[in-house]
Amino acid sequence: MDSAGIADYANGILIIVTGLLAYFGIKRGRSSGGEDEHSSAPTVQIAGALVDSRSVEKLSGEVAGQSLAITSQVVALREQTEAIKDQTRAMRDLHQEVRDLSDLTRAITDLGTQVSRMK
Predict the structure, then answer these.
(1) pTM for the full model?
(2) Among the four 40, 59, 98, 112, which has the fewest Cβ within 10 Å?
(3) Separation between Cα atoms, residue 91 and residue 55, nearest integer Å
(4) CA distances from 74 to 14, 20, 43, 44, 70 (A)
């Protein structure tokens, strides 16, 4: 997953959470009845819903934290993939060494057979 994929994932999470906040804000607004729109509490209007600015700040912090966590997971996954590739190369080299040793053993056996026939 590249950085563009991570950004798309983080944006998707942000959209979902903002939608949920908007839904609950609208639901809260309907259930509260005739509250004054211009109350003294610090609020921000998003998509027709009232959302507390502290909630938005907390949400942005959570999204940033999630983005950092995903980024660190991607880095760890890349490191693990590279380690697997290195081990695969080492196994192939070892397999080739075993083949070479097998060929050498066959050659020694053939040489021994030829020497025994010459006697």
Answers:
(1) 0.43
(2) 40
(3) 53
(4) 19, 27, 36, 34, 6
- Spatial neighbors of 19 by CB under 8 A, at least 6 apart, are 47
Q: How many CB atoms neighbour CB 51 within 10 A?
A: 19
Structure tokens at 40: 């003294």
Sequence-distant (6+) residues with CB within 8 A of 50 are: 25, 28, 29, 43, 44
Residue identified by tokens 């950092």 is: 68
Q: Alpha-carbon distance 105 to 62, whole Å? A: 64
User: Scanning the structure block, which residue is given the tokens 């026939």?
Assistant: 117
